């Protein structure tokens, strides 16, 4: 690579307005792109080390607010105004419409069932019997492994280790609780130290790779549907027949029938989620609040469930088994992201489960709204009216 093609960097202090301007000028010379709007931002680049490299500016994502939404959670209690960062017209309006239905039906009940973050090393042996016996030794020495792993963190706690034997390999999956951090890096460091202890103390000689890809980092997996990664959160509501008819122009029996069709279609397609669009609300909330946006691929998976009640009302719930969220660390402390978390009362430590409940409630609101729009024929007409920006 020639020197004139290298992106400019300052080894002493690379996160400054001056260096961002130098790089924008470099990109302009190389590509012809004039980064006028990208170069206009209010944040101090000095807060960015640890979040980004080769900083040139800010992509200014539109943020709208949906709500209010009444949440009857164990951690999220009361009315919330939800920030959604999106460029999709009708999205914020649709979520607000779903939230109105939720409010008129008495609010959405939310529950965090459990939460884990994983790192999954693979240990290699000369044959399957060694791998099997090594697994027994892991069980017998769990307390020592746990103590070693937890020397690297004041927050992370190793709860249990799952095992699978394949050929002459033993796949382990270390499951941690991680407080208010998402925790991928935290558990990676803890597991590395634990694996080094295992390698040094195991009576059976072994080699290992820190990730055998069963942690499914940034990937959807059926394993996470059964055993939680991130928070397993459930949002549920009883939709009153008269409210749904008045606000959405939809009968609860029609919505129940449409949900059955949607379940079958999702099953045939092999979809990770059987409801209308969990990823929309999750992605918009994640971008607004400084979450790791790649975690949407895991977090959007789940189950939309329903039951038509004898009185004509409709029970509906969303189960998100791998909702990966944080209110501390990562991008959550950056200025605009922190402001959006402040809107929700979810800044800092002790707020991750509250935030998870708000995310799940938002997903349910969006699914109610879009599901009804499809039935009532408003889906296409709404996008034609509100969602077409062709400038």
Automatic annotation (TrEMBL):
Stored InterPro entries: HMG_CoA_Rdtase (IPR002202), HMG_CoA_Rdtase_cat_sf (IPR023074), HMG_CoA_Rdtase_eu_arc (IPR004554), HMG_CoA_Rdtase_NAD(P)-bd_sf (IPR009023), HMG_CoA_Rdtase_sub-bd_dom_sf (IPR009029)
Keyword Lipoprotein applies: no
Regions that span the bilayer: 358-381
EC number(s) reported in the record: 1.1.1.34
GO function term, MF aspect, one: hydroxymethylglutaryl-CoA reductase (NADPH) activity
Oxidoreductase is among the record's keywords: yes
Biological process (GO), any one: isoprenoid biosynthetic process
Annotated keywords: Membrane, NADP, Oxidoreductase, Transmembrane, Transmembrane helix
Pfam families registered for this protein in UniProt: HMG-CoA_red
Family stated for the protein in its record: Belongs to the HMG-CoA reductase family.
PANTHER family: 3-HYDROXY-3-METHYLGLUTARYL-COENZYME A REDUCTASE
Annotated protein name in UniProt: hydroxymethylglutaryl-CoA reductase (NADPH)
Species, as recorded: Paraglaciecola psychrophila 170
């Amino acid at each position: 690579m020639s020197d004139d093609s290298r992106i400019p960097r300052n080894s002493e202090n690379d996160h400054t307005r001056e260096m961002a301007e130098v790089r924008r000028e470099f990109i302009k010379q190389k590509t012809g792109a004039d980064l006028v709007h990208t170069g206009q931002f209010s944040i101090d680049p000095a807060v960015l080390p640890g979040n980004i490299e080769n900083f040139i500016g800010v992509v200014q994502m539109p943020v709208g607010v949906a709500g209010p939404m009444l949440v009857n959670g164990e951690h999220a209690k009361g009315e919330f105004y939800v920030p959604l960062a999106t460029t999709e017209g009708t999205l914020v309006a649709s979520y607000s419409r779903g939230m109105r239905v939720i409010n008129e039906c008495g609010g959405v009940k939310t529950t965090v069932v459990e939460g884990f973050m994983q790192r999954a090393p693979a240990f290699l042996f000369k044959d399957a019997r060694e791998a099997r016996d090594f697994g027994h030794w892991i069980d017998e020495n769990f307390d020592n492994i746990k103590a070693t792993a937890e020397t690297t963190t004041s927050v992370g706690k190793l709860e249990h280790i799952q095992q699978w034997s394949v050929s002459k390999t033993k796949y382990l999956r270390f499951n941690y609780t991680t407080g208010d951090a998402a925790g991928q890096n935290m558990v990676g460091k803890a597991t590395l130290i634990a694996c080094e202890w295992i390698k040094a103390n195991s009576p059976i000689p072994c080699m290992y790779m820190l990730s055998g890809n069963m942690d499914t980092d940034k990937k959807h997996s059926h394993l996470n549907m059964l055993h939680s990664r991130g928070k397993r959160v459930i949002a549920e509501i009883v939709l009153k027949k008269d409210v749904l008819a008045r606000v959405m122009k939809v009968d609860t029996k029609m919505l129940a029938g449409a949900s059955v069709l949607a379940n079958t279609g999702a099953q045939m397609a092999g979809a990770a989620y059987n409801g209308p669009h969990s990823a929309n609300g999750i992605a918009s909330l994640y971008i607004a609040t400084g979450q790791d946006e790649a975690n949407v691929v895991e977090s959007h998976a789940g189950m939309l469930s329903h039951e038509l009640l004898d009185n004509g009302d409709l029970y509906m719930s969303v189960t998100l088994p791998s909702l990966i969220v944080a209110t501390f660390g990562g991008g959550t402390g950056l200025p605009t992201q922190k402001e959006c978390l402040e809107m929700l009362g979810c800044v800092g430590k002790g707020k991750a489960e509250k935030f998870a409940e708000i995310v799940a409630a938002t997903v349910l609101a969006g699914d109610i709204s879009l599901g009804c729009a499809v039935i009532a024929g408003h889906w296409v007409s709404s996008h034609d009216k509100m969602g077409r920006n062709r400038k």
